Each structure stands twice: as C-alpha cells, then as structure tokens.
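[step 3/7] fold_predict: job queued, chain A
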Amino acid sequence: MADFAASCNKYYLCSMGSGNFKQGHYTDPEYKMFELENVKFRDILTVDELKLKAQRVTCIVGKSGGGKTTLLKLLNNLISADSGTILYKGKGIETYDPVALRREVMMLPQQPLMFSGSIRDNFGKTLRFAEREAAGDAVYRDLLQQVGLKLPLETDTMNLSGGEKQRVALARVLLLQPETLLLDEPSSALDDETEDFIIRMVVDYARERGVTLITVTHATSVAERFADVMITLFDGKIQRVETLKDT
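[step 4/7] structure written:
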C-alpha cells in the first residue's frame, strides 16, 4: 500500500476526492475561486494579478515553456510560489492541508500514470486510495462511454495507446466528482475529431455540475469555442485575460 500511495503522489493522483465530498454551488456569479497577486515562481512565471471565478471554464493558452503547467500546479499547491499571495476561496492556499486541498482541486497531468492491471483495477484502486466505496461495473462502463471508449473492463492498461490512457485517466477523475478540475493538455495525444469530442464532453460535464474547470490547451481555436475566459501566457507572463462568454 505504501508503494501504491507513493506512486499516486508522484503522479499527482493524491488529488482524489474524499468520501465526504460535496459539490460546491455558488450563488454569487462573481465569487472568486482563486486570486493571485504578485506571484513569482523562479524565472518561469510571474503573475501580477489574476482572479478566477467559480464555475467558469477557463482555458490557458500559449507557447510551450510559457508557464502554463506551472500555473496549474500553483493552484493546488503542488508547487509553492517563491513570493506573492495565492488565495483559494478567500484563504491563503498555504493554510490548507495539501491532501485536503487536492481532494477539492484535482489535477490531471498531461501524461497520467496507469496503475498495473485492467481498466477495472484502475477504477478500483482509484476509489480505494481516495477512501471511497467501491462502484459497480455499470458505473465504470458509463464513464468509459462518456470519454468515448468502447473497451472491455478487463483490458490491460499497459496495452492502451497514449490517447486511450489519457481518456481512462480522465474517466478516473470524473469518477471522483471534483469541485475544481485542472487539466493539463487533456487531448494532446488525440486526433482532432476525438479532441473536439473530449473537450466538449468535459466542458458540458463542468457546466452541468457547477464544476470550476481550468484547462491548458495548445489550440487557441479550442479555447475560443469552449471557454468562458481565455488566459494567454507568453514567456512566463500573462499577456491577456479575455472574457469570451458571460455566464
């Protein structure tokens, strides 16, 4: 179990919901989920000011190496800023227990870890580590259908393609019903048609359930179609914050 937990932490899967999770709903449309001021991380990222509202779809775009993934990691304290202030729900992010925080603010990395065994085993281990009750095959099959996979639950995850692994990992995250979801290039290993399907599905999921969704994408066109807010990063600094849709 110790080795299993260590693997989870290494690949950010410590960001799993607890059994007592309750979805947050915010009646104030201006409620700030995150507020950053004078934040600096090494020479990689500098944020003078940024406010991210709850229950919005925010896309972060920019060239490789511009600080996009670093920004995501700061939002659930996977890394700590060298200076500045980061508030989550109005409180300093450093005041939260890291594991408790990551049970609310869940990050899916670009290259997620697949546990050994079948797809069913992956779902089961995810729930076990999150201290959640086991679910049945019907739940797992429905999740696979949501992410566009028609694979038997007995399929060994070591035999999956890169795109299939990304989608299984996304299904595991959806199983845990996060309040805030951070996605790092969730469709990077997918073709254009599948990318459109996955992004649309995740956005619909977030809007229907009141989830705050913050995702990194390499495609500005994706952000323009799906995002409420688009943040453009260049050379570690925010160039623009554009409101594309009023919700």
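[step 5/7] annotate
Residues 1-23 have pLDDT under 50 and may be disordered.
Strands lie at 32-41, 45-53, 57-62, 83-88, 91-92, 105-108, 180-184, 212-216, 229-234, 237-243.
exit 0
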